[in-house]
Structure formats: C-alpha cells, structure tokens
Amino acid sequence: MSINAEFLRKILELECKKGYVDSAVIGGLDRFLHNWAGQAVESITTSPLLNRFNKLRLVNSNYASLTKEQRQEWINDVLNFLSEAEPGEDEKGKAKLTPIASRPSPRPRVNKAVVNQSIDSPITIIRGISSSLATKFNKLGVKTIRDLLYFFPHRHLDYSQSKPISQLAEGKEETIVANVWQAQEIRLGGRRSTEAIVGDETGNVRVVWFNNPYLAKKLATNTRLVISGRVSLFKGRHVFESPEWELAEDKELIHVGRLVPLYPLTQGLRPRQVRKLLKEVVDQWAWQVADFLPLGLKERQKLLELPQAISQAHFPEDEALKDRARVRLAFDELFLLQLGVLSKKRDWQEGQPGSPLSTKTPVLDAFLQSLPFELTAAQHRALKELLADLEKPRPMSRLLQGEVGSGKTVVATAALFMAAANGYQGAFMAPTEILAEQHFSTICQLLSRAGQLEVKEDYLHSYSGLSPHPLTVALLIGDITQVRKRELHQRILDGDIDIVIGTHALIQKGVEFHQLGLAVVDEQHRFGVTQRSALRQKGYNPHVLVMTATPIPRTLALTLYGDLDLSVIDQLPPGRQIIKTKWLKPGQRASAYAFIKRQVADSRQAFIICPLVEESETIQARAATAEYERLSQEVFPELRLGLLHGRMSATDKDKVMRRFRSGELDILVATPVVEVGIDVPNATVMMVESADRFGLSQLHQFRGRVGRGQEQSYCMLLAQNPSEVARERLDIIENVQDGFELAEEDLKLRGPGEFFGTRQSGLPDLRMAKLSDVALLELARSEAIRLFEKDKRLEKPEHSPLAKELARVWPEAGEWS
Ligand code: ADP
Ligand code: MG
C-alpha cells in the first residue's frame, strides 16, 4: 500500500545476495520497479533529488538485459540514491522514503484563484469545512490552518500490526485484513445496526456496528476491508463490536491498520470526520510550514524537519517517528519559550540604565551586627549574589528561592536598606495585606534594633542613627483613610519616604516614586511578567528581587523565569525541627481535637485550615465562618477562637492576626489565605481539613506556618475519602520534609498545569512539551543561550525565520530585528 525505500532496499540487497540473477521478486525486478517508481516519484520533494531519480530511469528500467557487472553497478547506484534520498533521517544510513500520503504532499493542489491563501488563512477556505464545522473547531481553539496543523491528537491507537483471523485474541486491540462475505442490516437491542461476516485464508469472524444500518449497503460481498478494534466474545465466538474500518484500497489507511490518531473532540465532531479532514490538511499544508530552526541546530540535535514532524505527529509511520516528531515539536515550544524569556531579560537590562548602588557601607555591617541571629551560610551567599547585582549599572532581576522559614525577609531587608542608604527608594510588595503588615512590623523591628525610633505616626516609622538621614518606612494598605493615603503618596513622590511596603497594588494603583531603586516582590508565582513590565512602563528601571517559597525545581525555574537570575537559600536557620506530620482518617478527628486541646493546655496555639470549598473567596469565607461557629460552640467551647478569611476588611484581619500572634487567641480558623508567610512562633499545631484537595507544595506551605519557634510542632492532615493519587500525596508529605523534593514529586504527580495553579500569564501554551522532561528543557535552554550569545537580536539572515516565529508566539517580547 505504501511504498517505502526500505522495502526496495531489502529487495535489492536480496538480489545482490542471490547473485544478480533477477530472482528477488516474482515477475522480475523491472516490473516491480516500474510500479514502485511510479508511486515513489510523488514523494520526492526537491528537484536535485528528482533529477537523480529520473536519471536512474527506474520506471523504464532494463535490468533483465544487463550483464552481471552492469547489474551490480546499477544496483549500487540505486542503493546510493536511496540512502541519500533522506540523509540524516536515519543515522544508520538506512534510507527511507515515507509513504506518499504521510509526507507533505510535494505537489500541493493550489489552484490559481486561491494563491493568496496561507497557513494563516481561516479554516473555512478548506474545501469541506462549512461554517458550522468551523464553529465547532473554533470551540477547540482552532481558527486557522496553522491551528489545525497544530491540533495534535492526544494519543494514538496502535493498529499497525495486522493478524490472521485465526490468531485473534479476546480482549485485545487487533487489526485484520479481510473480505466481506455478507453484510446485512439487523436489529440489536431494538436499534437498526449492521452485521457482517468477514474472512481471510485462516477463518471468519463476525463484526457488528451498532446503530449504523447504512453500512450494510456499503459493504458488498467481496469488499476488502481493514478492521481495527477490540475483540470480544459473544456466545463463545469472537466478534468485533463497532470497530474502526476502512476499505483496503491502494491508498494510505487513516482509520485502521496503522498508528491511528485520536483527537480531542467537541460536540458534533465525529472522529472519522476529523481524522479524514486532518489527513487532507496535513498532506496539503504541512509542507508549507516554514521550518524556522537554524540548520546547524537541527543537525546538531538530529531533529526532524518541521513539516515532517507535524505530519508524523498526526499520522506517524511508526512509534520511533512518532517519538521523534514529539521531540521536535516539544523542543520548538521550549526553545521559543527560552528565547522569549531571554529577550525579556535583555530588554530589561538594556532598556534603561539602572541605579548602581554602593554596597560597601558601614551601614550594612551595622545592620547585620544588630540582628538577633547570625545569617546562615545560604543567606550569606544569597545576599552576596544580590549585592553584587546591585552594584552593577544594569538593573538586577533576580529570583530568590527559599524554603518557608529559610529567612528571605532579612536578606530582602538588607537590600532595601542598601537602596535607602544610597538615597534611592525601595518598594516591598506582598501578595496580601496581612503579609504586607507583617513585613512592615518585621522590618520595623529589625530597624529598631539597629537605630532609634524617631517618628512613629500611623503607618509610618522613622529611624535615626542608621544612615546620614533618618530612614523612613511606610505601609500602604487599603484601610488607611483617604486623607492619610494622599499624604503618604505625596511624601513618597517627594522622596521623603525610603521604604514603602504594600501589596502588588502599589505598582498598579499608581503610586509615584521620587526615585525607585529597588522593588522586592514577595511570592513570585503571584507576580507575573506583566507587573514587571508595568514597572518599566512607568519609567522606572529599578533592581528587581522576586522571592518565592514555592520550591520550583531549578531547571523549571530557569525555564519559566529564565529572565531572572536565581539565588537559592537551601538551608534553614539552625534549631529548626522536623514537623511531625500525620494523615488522619475521618474517624480520628475527635482525637485530633483532643490533641489540640492538650497543646492549648500547654499554652501553645493551633491553626485549623478550613475545607477548600471553591476558588471563590466569598464561598470559602462562608464555609470558614460556618466551621468557625461549629468549632467554637461544639468542639472548643472553652477555648478562644479567631476567624480569618479573605473577605474580611484589612483592619479586621489585622486585629485577628494581632490577637493570635500576641496569644489572646488559642486557635485560628482560617481559609487557605494563611498559606504564605504568616509568622507565629508559638503556634505548634497545623490542622488541615480536606487535605486531599491540596497539592504537596501547598500542604508544605501550610505546614511551614508551624515549627517556627522552639517547641515541637505537628501537622495533622484530614482527608475524607482520598483518591489513589491523593493517598500517594499524603503518604509522601508524611515522610518528606524537604520542600524541593516535594515540589519534584508534585510535578510528577500533578503535572505543571496544576502545580502552578492557574495558567501562568504571558506564557505560550505548551502542547507537546512536558515541563517534567528535564533533559529536553536543558537542551532547549542551552541551545537558546548559545544562539543568544551569537546573535542577541536574531539579526543574522539565517535567523530571520526564527525571529519571525518568535514575534508570532511572543508578540510582547518585542524588539526583534
Ligand atoms: P521566609 O523565608 O519564609 O520568608 P522569614 O524571613 O519569615 O522566612 O523568616 C522566618 C523566621 O526565621 C523569622 O522569624 C526570622 O526572624 C527567622 N530567621 C531568619 N534568619 C534567621 C537566622 N539566620 N537564624 C535564626 N532565625 C532566623
Ligand atoms: Mg516570607
């Protein structure tokens, strides 16, 4: 059915082996070649190759009349041609011409009227796609022909091996090639259906198609069919029930007898219809996709050509090519992603000059001296990396990663302090107001040890003795009165305030700075690329430090945040304990409550994280309120409980937090808002309801809320009815304390989509690439860096297709030549 070079090569080799007596194929080589060549010519795509092909005169070969030496020479020529026909496609030099239909058609059926069409034309220009069909595809995100080419099957069924009927095995997915003996309409379960008996040399088998009476008419006796599907047993005999089928004509099979693609479907799209359409579209259009990868790179990494990869991803010839197609397409995604982030970094650093800071000041030493503890080695290292950046004229863009409680705040404070000492302003942005308040009080505490509190107004403290001018810190949050807010804004604009602490809204809500030198952003995974460019658009080009306690595996961090340099605090301050973690069955809830009571009797405190009901904060708040009331009245009537959720006013949240921190409350019932950053050293119990609904990293964040003081701490995880995967997760968190290890596990168990919660803003979607594929990630990254080193703006002519592609997938990356 499909011609391939491999087959011809085998025959020619056999002919050599047999001594050139024209006995390799029945009927003689000439006749065979005539047929083979007639079809093979269609699959030759380049004209030099076609020239050579024609010179061999395979269609009108005259092998029979040659002498033995001539035969030998001629066969050598043909074999040489075969191995050159597709160099590099197979390292072992076994040439292979792909079957006609599965390679991009060499002669596109372009008619003159439609010459302006491109792969970016809407799919409606394709014959056979009506506007109603187009609407269905649009629902799947497919608008243009390119979208369709990149609309990949989610998997393939392996129907590539056909079997004699006598060898069919029940319960297996099998393929047969058989003749129809008879086909008729029958009623099955009251439905009009088709039944056929088909047979080959080894036996017969019954096939039924439920609900499809029309097929009976199509399947005339002696029609040759290829049938693929699961073999089941009915009354002791084999039967195919509603299998895929296709006429065994002399053309490439689509639905059976091969690796058959399964596409994600939507209402009203039929699998056969989609498959057939995609086959046509791939054959006609895939070859028109410009291969944007530089030649050298493709060769170095032995990547398939793009058109071939697209075609093989849909209709692969075999498993090996399917895999190579995936590798090529996944590489493209990761490579472009890398180039995108690298270009962002380049723009950030080259856009405007930054503010070089002098970090060799006695002020820094005084500050470090005043701390109530020694920095850990990891903190020292991170601080050093950071200070080195601050001294440079190009703005820093650094990600500081560190386990919960690893002490990132101190490091960030030292940097903010440096900015202030150099006469610049610093902004410290937290994901929530509670955390902003906490950072404010932490920083004030640290500064009060090193300097003297001079001024203490609402939301503003000023310290002397640290730098030539008094150092002023302000907190900007929602519940400040308008008058006071305006006043603070003005003082920030005047440069009167050195360090401003607030939420991410600081940047969005139009706070104007006098001279912003450093922006610290806590919890990077909630602070997107977009906000960073918002900074720039305001004309600031400050050093940027983003911090995250989400331990992202290094390779992944470099891929997603490759525009940031990475510092890791991979060490906890000394004396931190292992938090005893236990997964409890619902029956153990009573004993969990009893445990909390005993801890409180020992004057410790506890968190109870309420069931995660839904993403909506309102509903979460309501659930938390109900749970709070139940716990206060029924479970802990004699204890002091507080409630914390995202819908409370900042003042109320603050009140509750303060009371909990100061020990006026025993138990804090909270929604997952406490996930990040809250620091209460006396809290020793973290109880999480519906723990099976949270990911490992998030559970680890909860757990990090306790164990911050000297006392042994505990984490109790309640799970009603955990699924298999959730069970596995709970087992892991019971036994693993290390955040990075948990993150790796999380990534394996849940995949990157869920790992990051909602889709990262500004990232192109990855269809073929898996972020857990570390080797390919690293390859893409190293190739991107290599290319960037040679041609930072992709200005070289050989990189112009790449620049174009990059501009298409990352329009916001900008500034490409
Ligand atoms: P995170 O990295 O989670 O933001 P924090 O900065 O909030 O951690 O620090 C957690 C706690 O550890 C704080 O109470 C802080 O004062 C304390 N801490 C930070 N560094 C050290 C250190 N080197 N030795 C002892 N305690 C430290
Ligand atoms: Mg923190």
Structural overview:
This protein has 817 residues and is an alpha/beta fold. The chain has 27 helices and 23 strands. It has a 9-stranded mixed β-sheet with strand order 11-12-13-14-10-15-16-9-17, sandwiched between helices. Strands 18-23-22-19-21-20 form a 6-stranded parallel β-sheet, sandwiched between helices. Strand 13 (471-476), helix 16 and strand 14 form a beta-alpha-beta unit. Helix 1 (5-17) runs antiparallel to helix 4, helix 12 (362-370) runs antiparallel to helix 14 and helix 12 packs across helix 15 (433-450). The radius of gyration is 34 Å and the shape is elongated. Mean pLDDT is 83; it is low at 87-114 and 757-762. The structure holds adenosine-5'-diphosphate and magnesium ion. Magnesium ion binds at residues 408-409, 522, 677. Magnesium ion (MG) is lined by residues 408-409, 522, 677.
Helix-and-strand structural type: alpha/beta
Bound molecules: adenosine-5'-diphosphate, magnesium ion
Average of pLDDT? 83
| Bulk shape | elongated
| Largest beta-sheet characterization | 9 strands, mixed
Low-confidence runs:
87-114, 757-762
- What is the percentage of strand-forming residues? 15-25%
